[in-house]
Amino acid sequence: MADKEVTQLEKMKIIGLFRKEGYTGGEYETFQRVSGTDREFFVVMSNEQGIKALFRASLMLNAVEFQYVLVDKHTFVTECGRKLVGTS
Q1: Phi and psi of 55, rounded to 5°?
Q2: pTM here?
Q3: What pLDDT score does 16 carry?
Q4: b/e for 46-71, b at 16 or more Cβ within 10 A?
Q5: What is the per-residue DSSP string for 8-61?
């Protein structure tokens, strides 16, 4: 499931969740499915200053959760060691 590409319709729904939660500025850089589900996604978003943050968005719960700010050359990995999000 996590290997399946995020569709345009899913991206629009995720962006709608961000707007509903009050996130109006910034650029959506990457969308990736959370391993083991097809209704939850990791989203990397950046602001005007170039600061990037990782969020977890759930279409099942209609919720967006801030995870943390990304630093240069930071890479996230799943429990099995597969690369999730790289900013380098």
Answers
A1: -125, 155
A2: 0.76
A3: 96
A4: eeeeeebbbbebbbeeeebeeeeebe
A5: HHHHHHHHHHHHHTT--SSEEEEEEEPTT-SSEEEEEEE-TT--EEEEEEETTT
